[in-house]
Amino acid sequence: MKQFGRRYQLALGNPNDGVLIDALRVSFDITKTIDAKPNPAQICIWNLNRTHLNQLLSGRFKRIALSVGYAELRLLYTGDILKATLQRDGLDSILVLECADGDTDYRHARVSLTLKAGASDQQALQQLAQSLDQTQLGTVAPGRPNSLPRGRIFCGNTRDALSQLAQANHADWSIQDGELLMLPAQQVLADEAVLISQDTGMIGAPEASEDGLIVTTLLNPAIRIGSLVRVHSVTESFNGDYKIVSVSHCGDTYGDEWLTTITAVGGAFTPIKDQS
To answer: What is the pLDDT of residues 76-128, one digit of tens each?
Structure first.
């Protein structure tokens, strides 16, 4: 991947109004995991005009979407703005936004649902997803195709009901860029494996950790939680296909930092089709 020509677009707003930023200095530090807890991000904007600054500090703008790329833009992160604060650095004003993907639905979505005997886990997931006002149904793939032998009642926080279904299917659920994702441990998204090598932007060499293989590369928005990555490095023992369970993106449009770091686990994985 070519590092020059990098671009970004930052969208801030609410359902009725918003602003696009693509020329100011922006930095970001984003963490995504396969866990259910909302993915956090810190996004900083330098020298925003007073009107847009007040819209963010007052809480009028509550949603954020960051797209980045080289030749073309691709969504890197979307989420809820939890907190906006203003800092000063000499003559510069820096707006710091603390964000979380799917935070509103994770904390507030509730469900009261009765399923008849014979309903499948897939049907249960589709019904539960309807209680998530700001989250779309993405790839949800329960591992067991069997139907419920008896009726079942879900009442309470939607996140707890999703966790129950995920546990029963040996799966992980999360909200990724505004979409509900549920993947069994031995399955991956149907995306084509992303190759990470010295030729495509690998930085340094892969490192083994207790959580999996850690690899750093030039910023790559194509890398997604639950997808397959193909590692090719000078350390042959690390080469192969891995499932991405954690990814962090960090960058500064006026600086040198423009990186993606992944944690991925090995195994025999079966791709699934997107059922959204």
So the answer is: 999 999 999 999 999 999 999 999 999 999 999 999 989 888 788 888 899 99
- Looking at 75, 101, 127, the residue that finishes a domain is 101
Task: Give the pair of three-digit tokens for residue 252.
Answer: 């500064």
Q: Is residue 2 part of a domain?
A: no
Do residues 8 and 253 touch, judged by C-beta distance below 8 A? yes
Give the total number of structural domains in the chain: 3
Q: Residue holding tokens 């083994």?
A: 208
Q: Which domain, by its residues, includes 119?
A: 108-177
**Residue 198 falls within a domain, yes or no?**
yes
**120 secondary structure, DSSP code:** B
Q: How far apart are CA 166 and CA 153, in angstroms?
A: 16
User: Distance between CA 160 and CA 237 in Å, rounded?
Assistant: 40
Cβ distance 204 to 225 under 8 Å?
A: no
The answer as to whether 144 is a domain residue is: yes
* 143 plus 120 within the same structural domain: yes
**Burial group, residue 5, by CB count within 10 angstroms (0-12, 13-18, 19+):** exposed
Q: Residue 95 in contact with residue 53, Cβ under 8 Å?
A: yes
Burial class of 90 by CB neighbour count within 10 A (0 to 12, 13 to 18, 19+): exposed
